[in-house]
Write a structure and sequence with these properties.
Blueprint (H helix, E strand, L loop, with lengths): L9 H23 L4 H13 L9 H10 L14 H16 L10 E6 L5 E7 L11 H12 L11 E9 L1 E8 L12 H18 L4 E7 L3 E4 L16 H13 L5 E8 L5 E4 L2 E4 L6 H16 L2 E7 L4 H14 L2 E4 L5 H11 L7
Length: 361
């Protein structure tokens, strides 16, 4: 075999890699800037001025390429993120969060039960009239015929076995993101990983699970449903944590869905510190207020009765808060993870893919 070698300019390789890294950095800054592309550009220039980026990098050329590719509008028009830029941001979040996980198959959720599906299971059952001939297991069927006839290959209908198939299902999910002040307390940014996860979930469901449905809400003093396109602009405010209303709003969003599986992915780093009473909000940021705790647990139980599973991703290590989450999980019969903000996406996707393999009963 003949091989041909060609010269590869190392400067070209470095420039390509630099462009990739710059785009990743720009996307991260874009999330931290609540979708403000102009602010993200300013931060990149500031990073270069402080020496964090190579002074030889041509940021003006990079920003011009973003405009040429249609990811941001021209500076004269405001330089805002475009629809193409939003799609690229979702893909970037998906790649960042899910790169280390195994592929999830053809885009359907497998249930741990046999039924009408795509993939064959190793288990077999006797052939019944109406079964597809392509599902017949030739090896098991031949073995049955040889065993019955004691060595003569005389195949009869009673010898036939067919492979079981994985049953396919769909899922409706609400991602509920805590936007209380504690999500940026003590200088630790927890809201950006939460937004990254929500963007990655959007891309996952759109591209691989088209039969699924995803909704997003944010909650502080009150819970508010937002559109998927609003995710990059999520901002933390001087809010308390109304977990009870978040669960109630998520349950209402899921009520009209006909998907066999329904779940809430609750991303929070603090204890519930508010509940809604009529048109007013009762708040208590000190300790675990039993009035607030009990109302929140009651809502978790309502979710259970409506077959809505709550998966809590708690970004906290306080034993008192962990005890509350464990209690909420027990009441709902859901799941709980004590996650690290730097690996929150891995937690969420692993749960989303793995736990859609069974039907909620």
């Amino acid at each position: 075999m003949r091989h041909r070698y060609a010269y590869l300019d190392p400067e070209l390789v470095r420039s390509l890699l630099a462009a990739i890294d710059l785009l990743r950095l720009f996307n991260q800054l874009l999330l931290a800037a609540a979708g403000d592309a102009a602010r993200a550009r300013e931060w990149m220039r500031e990073l270069q001025g402080r020496g964090y980026l190579d002074e030889g990098l041509d940021l003006d050329r990079f920003f011009a390429q973003l405009e040429e590719q249609g990811l941001v509008s021209p500076a004269a028009a405001g330089g805002a993120l475009t629809a193409s830029g939003a799609r690229q941001l979702r893909r970037s979040a998906f790649e960042e969060v899910f790169a280390s996980l195994a592929k999830a198959g053809p885009g359907y959720h497998a249930v741990q039960a046999a039924g009408e599906g795509v993939d064959s299971l190793p288990e077999t059952r006797p052939y019944a009239f109406g079964d597809e001939l392509s599902a017949i297991d030739p090896v098991r069927s031949t073995e049955n015929a040889l065993r019955r006839t004691k060595g003569d290959l005389d195949l009869a209908e009673e010898d036939l076995e067919v492979n079981e198939r994985e049953q396919l299902t769909s899922c409706a999910t609400v991602v509920a993101i805590d936007i209380s002040h504690s999500m940026v307390l003590y200088g630790e940014d927890r809201i950006t990983p939460a937004k990254t996860v929500a963007l990655a979930m959007t891309e996952l469901i759109t591209s691989k699970y088209p039969n699924d449905w995803l909704g997003v809400l944010v909650f502080g003093d009150r819970a508010t449903r937002i559109e998927l396109s609003d995710i990059p602009g999520i901002q933390v405010g001087p809010f308390h944590t109304n977990t009870c209303e978040a669960l109630e709003a998520a349950r209402a969003m899921l009520a009209g869905r006909r998907h066999p599986n329904k779940q809430v992915l609750l991303i929070t780093d603090g204890k519930p510190s508010a509940i809604t009473e009529g048109h007013a909000v009762y708040k208590n940021p000190y300790g675990l207020d039993l009035k607030i705790v009990n109302r929140t647990l009651e809502e978790a139980d309502r979710c259970r009765r409506q077959k809505v599973v709550i998966t809590t991703f708690m970004i906290a290590t306080d034993p008192m808060l962990q005890q509350f989450v464990e209690q909420l999980t027990k009441v709902n019969r859901g799941r709980a993870y004590f996650a690290n903000p730097t690996d929150l996406g891995g937690f969420v996707l692993a749960d989303y893919v793995a736990n859609r393999r069974r039907r909620v009963r």
